[in-house]
Amino acid sequence: MQFHLIGNSHLDPVWLWDWREGLNEGLITVRTILDLMDEDPEVTYIRGESLIYRHIEETDPATFRRIAAQVKKGRWDVVGGTYIQPDTNLAGIETLARQYTEGQRYFQERFGRRATVAWQADSFGHTAGLPEVLHAAGIDSFAFTRPDSKVFPLREPAFWWEGPGGARILAYRPMVGWYGSEHDEVPRRLDGLLEAARNSSLQTVGCFYGLGNHGGGPSRRQLADIRAWALHHPEVELVHSGLHRFFAALRKEVAAKPARTLPVHRGELNFCLRGCYSSMARFKGLYRRGENLLARAERTDAIIAGSLGTAPADLDEAWRSVLFNSFHDILPGSSIERAMDDQAAWMGGVVQTTQATDLRALNQLALQIDTRVADHPADHPSAVAALAWNPHPVPFRGHVELEACLDYRPLFPYKGRGGKVPIRVLGPDGKPLPFQEIDVENRTSVEVPWRKRVLVPVTLPSFGWNVLELGWVEGSTIPSVPNPVRSGPDWIDNGEYRVKAMPGGKGISISHRGRSLFKGDGLTAAVFEDPWGSWGGMKEEPESFLLHDLREAWAIKTVSLLEQGPERATLWTRLEGKRSRIDLTFSVSRNRPAVDVQARVFWADRSARLKLVFPVGDEAEFEVPGATVRRKPCGEVPGGRWVSIPGKFGFASDALYNFDCVKGQLRATVVRGAPYATEFPLPAKESMRLPTGDLGEFKFRFLLTAATAELPRLARELEQPPMVQIVPVKKGPLPRQGSLGELKPASLQLLALKPAGKGRGFVLRAQAPAGRTVRASFKWTGSKGKTKNDLIDLGHITGGRIGSWLLEPAAGGWKAVEVDLAENRPDQKSAPQAKNDRK
Question: At the topology level of CATH, where does 486-715 sit?
Fold first, then answer.
């Protein structure tokens, strides 16, 4: 047998400490390890996370040079390939891809090599789509420790992990122990591995060791214990190694054995520490918002800059902020209150950056568009021009909201007329559009009209725009529409969906084409006892993820019709219990195949969780990062942008991640009342003095639909809706309606359109739906001066695979070259990892 001794020091940059302490502990740990390496020539060490290296390089250049020297000698193994060790169940698929873009590029630039082994020491389970991300990053091997064998048994410690597109990764989980070790644990660890290895078909064994969950690493005592153990076990070859060395030996052994020696696993590596799917829901919602707004702003800015020939925005720091906050003790909500406050402020900066980027990009585009408005009488305010922008590579059909002032002062002649003033909305063709006037967002000058807000149906081209015009026009009328939305005191109906709620009722009734979506009482809300800490059950106790102890079943307290009109009707409902409440504002819009809901929670319960309950079935399909998975009832599980009961019901939100299915019900966790960074169960009466996450107000949006085939598109539009921006009125060379690009086929999910990291051009990244190989193309119709050949052939992409292409300027248009996640062409090879062989 050959035992590979893999020295490491797991470092959480944020957990029971803040990010400043965490990063400096990385520096302290690395200096300690380097000193030990100078003292003991046998010591080897692995280190991932380019963030840690970057911090050392900027803070202590001399120490960084010592690292580089040990890397060159082969004793220091650069692994992982990521910016930080992220949570891989909750972060979006492009965020996971961008982890490797950032990490691999940094390692290549600083050390001349890219990692081919991914390393996730402590992340709480792994999405089914991760093999496709690893494959796209040039990684062929994956080491992890969670979930452990108690909750996720494996026939062998090594196995082939296949992604939905067929990517095959050699994965390994140690047979005994975790990523680190106690001061005196190494002899017991080696004894346990020897016993386990005798029952395995593999002779190549990985042994992770090293002190610490806050830095640390191999110690003198551990090294002495290893030498003493080796003297008593001459039958075992001990190799001070790294992950690249270990996987090379493992692959060599596997290649010499029968093909079926290793099992093949398809799907996710889950579940563990399930409380993390919903802890700190407010931060999760802020993170999701920043993640989506950044993706939207980046692609909007990139396609406008590429079309107009302007310089794109530099969003690298904003992306690093998102990557950092996807860390597996930040996004899962398992850190202390002070640290979570810091990270919320950090994500707020991301949101502001995206807003500034959107403003700049759309203004640049508007300067090239004919935004002139219709003539108006003398001494009468002109109409306002607005640019409605579709940030998606497929057309958008639906409603947008536009709010603007009708004049530079309130319209005092209309005082006392109930706010009524004749207004008109014109489309890009100069013809009147149907619209519905809705409430403005303020309660100032209520008796005197000034600002107006309208809901307008639009058709926006892919990556395209409409110029809309809103103005005060005497004598104007609103065009009539077919199939207007209907409503009553306690119901709303758009001809396809009907929502009805009554005070005192147990739930909200929603029907589709005359048939109820739900059984029993309809959509309800309930509070369940949840005394478990931030992670849920640390020992994976079934009671911690099978939460059936009902504290309260809420009833409908109040119902009110807020909006009624031909385009949209809105019904406000309040459900409440003894301490907490949730306001659900339901909307149905003309020709829209979904019910939209705005939710506002006031949460004051401790050691409990609030769930929305949908009695529609208990076997569901979940979108997870990079894949879809089907699950039967199995307790609390992570979900992504949407979940469906195929062919019956779909749910999408812009904030929620946690679901369970039980006894014919799909349930979505909204908030938990868990104290910060708490490991053990605490009843509510014992946690009163402890700061508890998510107490207070929390807002989010979701939608319900029976059109499950359209759910992925609806979910993307919910998270990244069209933008409407007031713009200057002027003449321009571009038409009032237009498109800058289109990705085909429409089934492709666009993950990114971004400036290339090296040199000129842009990078387009997309994923094909599993099970279907397609030929992809991108039509860049707005290419300034490059209109001879605006169709870019991207070639075939296998279903489930992630494809990245470098789009470079070429004669008469653009050309596409396929690249990996670090944006390397196939002919660009990094130096191989140096072998370390210290026995």
Answer: Beta-galactosidase; Chain A, domain 5 (2.70.98)
Beta strands at 696-705 and 742-744: parallel, antiparallel or unpaired? unpaired
- Which residue blocks in 592-698 are alpha helix, DSSP H? none
- DSSP for residue 800: T
List the beta bridge partners of residue 400: 456
- The C-alpha atoms of residue 512 and residue 705 are separated, in whole angstroms, by 8
How far apart CA 260 and CA 88 sit, in angstroms, is: 28
Peptide linkage before 147 cis (omega within 30 of 0) = yes
Residue identified by tokens 């390994």 is: 172
DSSP letter at 712?
Answer: H
What would be the CATH architecture of the domain defined by 384-472?
Answer: Sandwich (2.60)
User: Which residue, among 260, 314, 323, 276, has the nearest Cα to 85 in the 3D structure?
Assistant: 323
Q: How far, in Å, are 82, 141, 173, 657, 838 from residue 245 at the CA level?
A: 19, 11, 16, 37, 11
Angle (CA) 288 294 300, round 5° = 135
Burial of 550 (0-12, 13-18, 19+ CB in 10 A): exposed
In sequence order, which residues have a C-beta less than 8 Å from that of residue 476 and are 6 or more positions away?
Answer: 422, 423, 424, 432
Cβ-in-10-Å burial (0-12, 13-18, 19+) of 647 comes to exposed
Nearest to 103 by CA among 147, 348, 95: 95
Spatial separation of the C-alpha atoms in residues 621 and 770, rounded to whole Å: 14
d(CA 14, CA 10): 12
pLDDT digits (tens, 9 = 90+) for 630-659: 999 999 999 989 999 999 999 999 999 999
DSSP code of residue 333: T
Which residues, in sequence order, are bridge partners of residue 637?
A: 659
- Is residue 470 pLDDT above 50, yes or no? yes
Question: Domain 2-271 carries which CATH code?
Answer: 3.20.110.10
Between the alpha carbon of residue 211 and those of residues 10, 35, 179, 573, the distances in Å are: 8, 16, 9, 54
pTM for the full predicted model: 0.97
pLDDT at 834 over 50: no
